Amino acid sequence: MTTRHGADRPSTLFSLIAALAELPELSPVERARVAPDLIEAAKAVLSGVRGAAIQEAVDGGMSVVGVARELGVHRSKVTDALTAHRARVGQKTDA
């Protein structure tokens, strides 16, 4: 968490939690400086968590439409999340 724009940016849920736990130790200016990177890291990490959870639901027998209905989103959002997740983990995209 020493630099902006990628260096030391958390890339897993555990590293994100660890980086957030360090925030109180930083000066106010340093917290303000690292916050944008942490926001972007959190978006990326949580997008991955969501994609993996959706994949798990589909693998468990739920349809894309069923997942979308449960999440209150259009099925295209679920398909997009699956496509992104599969690209991250190198799976064939057949949603």
Topology:
Elements: H1 13-22, H2 28-59, H3 64-71, H4 75-89
Describe this structure in words.
By secondary structure, this protein is an all-alpha fold. It has one domain (13-89). Helices cover 68% and strands 0% of the residues. The chain has four helices and no strands. It has helices spanning 13-22, 28-59, 64-71, 75-89. The N and C termini lie far apart (36 Å). The model has no long low-confidence stretch (mean pLDDT 91).
Percent in strands: under 5%
> Which runs of at least 5 residues are low in confidence (pLDDT < 50)?
none
Instruction: Give the overall pLDDT as a whole number.
Output: 91
What is the SS-derived class? mainly alpha
Distance between the termini: 36 Å
- Total strand count, please? 0
Q: Tell me the radius of gyration.
A: 16 Å
Element string (H = helix, E = strand): HHHH
The tally of domains stands at: 1
Helix content: 55-70%
Instruction: Give the helix tally.
Output: 4
Largest sheet geometry: none
Q: What general outline do the C-alpha atoms trace?
A: elongated
Q: Which features does this protein show?
A:
mainly alpha, 95 residues, 68% helix, 4 helices
